[in-house]
Amino acid sequence: MKRILAIFLVLFLMGCAGPAYKQTIETDEGKVTIEGTAGSDEWCQAGANWQWTGSAPEGDSTATWKIEELMTSGKYDGLCHVVYMADTPDGKTTVNYYFSEDGETGYMEMEINGQTFTQEWSK
After folding, report:
1. 34 or 4, greater pLDDT
2. What is the Cα–Cα distance from 57 to 71, expressed in whole angstroms?
3. Mean pLDDT throughout 30-42?
4. What DSSP letter does each residue of 63-92 carry, written as one string?
5. Which of 7, 26, 50, 98 would be 107's cystine partner, CB 3.0–4.6 Å?
6. Model's pTM, two decimal places?
7. E strands, the chain, in order
């Protein structure tokens, strides 16, 4: 499942401004359906989203990546804010991503037991 999430992140970063589509693929881990929608050529188009559903022996999973906005102030100024929400057999997860247009720098934030954890990446 982690491999599917990694592949999905790459697809999302490359195509978040592309046209709407739906594709289903079979993997070693099960069946995955990916859907995407977007409304313009802007790299951080608020409201654009991608969704996927997957089935595997351990249970079904769904996830959504939704572009919230291009940040215009604060720590994440100039970065695109994307919210990732997943419902898997292991539970529900929400992660906030903030990344540059080229995807080479960014932050991942998640809250666990009332504490916020942030991880930064850069090339």
Report:
1. 34
2. 40
3. 62
4. EEEEEEEE--SSTTTTPEEEEEEEEETTEE
5. 98
6. 0.68
7. 21-27, 30-37, 49-56, 59-70, 80-88, 91-99, 106-112, 115-121
